[in-house]
Write a structure and sequence with these properties.
Elements (H helix, E strand, L loop, with lengths): L2 H11 L8 H4 L5 H30 L11 H13 L8 H11 L15 H6 L7 H27 L4 H12 L2 H9 L4 H16 L3 H8 L12 H7 L3 H22 L3 H16 L15 H8 L4 H26 L4 H17 L12 H15 L2 H28 L3 H20 L2 H8 L5
Helix pairs in contact: 3-8, 4-5, 7-8, 7-10, 7-18, 10-11, 11-13, 15-16, 16-17, 17-18, 17-20, 18-19, 18-20, 19-20
């Protein structure tokens, strides 16, 4: 008997199902109790790590909470350059470094190069009109709002009429290290990607396909995040969404050209060429390997930086992932909403793993991948798999807080391993959901 059939039938009969250890821990907590416990723990942690240090700092004047240098220095500086200089000068690294050091001087180390397309500094020129502390607070609130909008839109679509489940998702989202520390506190841009992908998914569900692609075009701010999502539109024949993406990205480029002139793009291309050459002489893309979660960085770390070993292995992984992604994506068009949930989830997860580089903070996108996977399993009524995904989500949450320190010491990125397991499970589930025998069997499985 095929392994997939064994898993499906075991699910229907209750085998392989995770069971709460009642004999040890007593009755399983209900959703209300879980919400109370999780939100209490999060509130206590925020009070101890942020609230009390801020209060002590306010009362004594002694700085006990060190936030700077946060990455928002880069974006605030980008905005200043766009406001005070011709936009083409943004791609002068000497000017970038000077402006960043005027905001917050670095006594150890240097500021890196900012290889973002020109519409990013144009956007942050709005924040650069404010004092730095005010601008940082304004962006933190903006970023938090974008995260809540994106996650909120997704959970309302995936878990309609289930406020307790939605509340748990929000709690785990805010407690996830790449979200809380990497994105919100550090001032990074992953909240834009979360909101863009979530809105694109929700608009697809409402058959607003062109506008779905238009929302997804906001990922043009960081092309590496499009590495699987845009090909997914092509492979699954989402033509109207693809047209929307092209229209949105073209509009951003035309806006930047209208403000900065045609010469902005040759300057950008030259800057990217220099950026690539400079970074090839240092750590992978100028960041410690412990702070990157893509599999290429993980392999380099484990191999001690021996690229001749990492290259062939990464090529093998790419082939092992790309072939089933293309085949399953092509087949998925004929199937229902649960399969479409999973197609989006698979594309998000593998974007984080098979890429040129993925910094720690971009792992915040895994929140959407987990939620969409749970939504697919809920619509399919596959209860056992749903329990295992919940357990895996908890492990990802825990790993996110210890992974950088562990990787710096042992050269093993725990978060990447957990996400790779998630991605493998998603591919397996997508394979089973697009097989007709299992589709019939799942239709007879009782709902949980």
């Amino acid at each position: 008997m095929e392994l997939g059939e064994i898993a499906a039938r075991a699910d229907a009969r209750g085998r392989w199902r995770l069971r709460w250890p009642t004999a040890v821990l007593g009755p399983a907590p209900r959703l209300k109790e879980l919400n109370l416990a999780c939100w209490t723990i999060l509130a206590a942690w925020l009070l101890l790590r942020i609230g009390i240090p801020l209060w002590v700092q306010f009362r004594t004047g002694v700085q006990t909470l060190h936030i700077l240098p946060a990455d928002f220095i880069y974006y605030y500086g980008d905005g200043r350059i766009a406001s005070e200089y011709p936009l083409v000068q943004f791609y002068d690294y000497g000017l970038q470094a000077r402006v960043y050091n005027e905001i917050y001087p670095l006594h150890n180390g240097v500021y890196g190069m900012q290889p973002y397309p020109p519409f990013v500094p144009l956007f942050f020129s709005l924040y650069a009109r404010l004092p730095f502390a005010v601008a940082y607070g304004a962006w933190l609130l903006t970023s938090l709002t974008l995260c809540l909008i994106g996650v909120g839109a997704t959970v309302r679509d995936v878990f309609p009429g289930e406020p307790l489940k939605q509340s748990l998702v929000f709690c785990f989202t805010l407690a996830y290290a790449p979200m809380f520390v990497g994105t919100l506190i550090n001032g990074q841009l992953s909240s834009v990607a979360i909101c863009a992908i979530a809105i694109a998914f929700v608009l697809e569900r409402r058959h607003r396909l062109f506008f779905s692609g238009l929302a997804l075009s906001l990922l043009a701010y960081k092309p590496t995040l499009c590495v699987f999502l845009v090909p997914m539109l092509l492979i699954t024949r989402r033509w109207r969404q693809l047209r929307g993406f092209v229209a949105g990205a073209s509009t951003l480029m035309l806006l930047a050209t209208a403000i900065g002139g045609v010469g902005i793009w040759p300057a950008y291309a030259r800057f990217l060429h220099v950026y690539k050459r400079v970074l090839s002489l240092s750590d992978r893309f100028g960041m410690p390997l412990a702070k990157q979660i893509d599999l290429g960085s993980c392999i380099l770390a484990v191999s001690g930086g021996r690229s001749h070993f990492a290259g062939p292995l990464m090529a093998l992984i790419c082939a092992a992932v790309l072939v089933p992604l293309v085949v399953l994506g092509w087949k998925s068009v004929r199937f229902d909403a649960s399969v479409q949930h999973l197609v989006w989830a698979v594309a998000i997860t593998w974007t984080l793993l098979v890429n040129a580089y993925v910094p720690f903070y971009d792992a915040a996108l895994a929140v959407l991948a987990v939620v969409l996977t749970l939504g697919a399993l809920q619509e399919s009524e596959w209860r056992t798999a749903r329990s295992w995904i919940v357990l895996l989500a908890v492990l990802i949450e825990v790993a996110s807080w210890i992974t950088i320190g562990f990787a710096a010491t042992h050269r093993i990125q725990l978060l990447s391993i957990a996400l790779a397991v998630l991605g493998g499970v998603q591919l397996y589930l997508l394979h089973r959901m697009t097989s007709r025998p299992l589709a019939r069997e799942l239709a007879t499985t009782p709902a949980s």
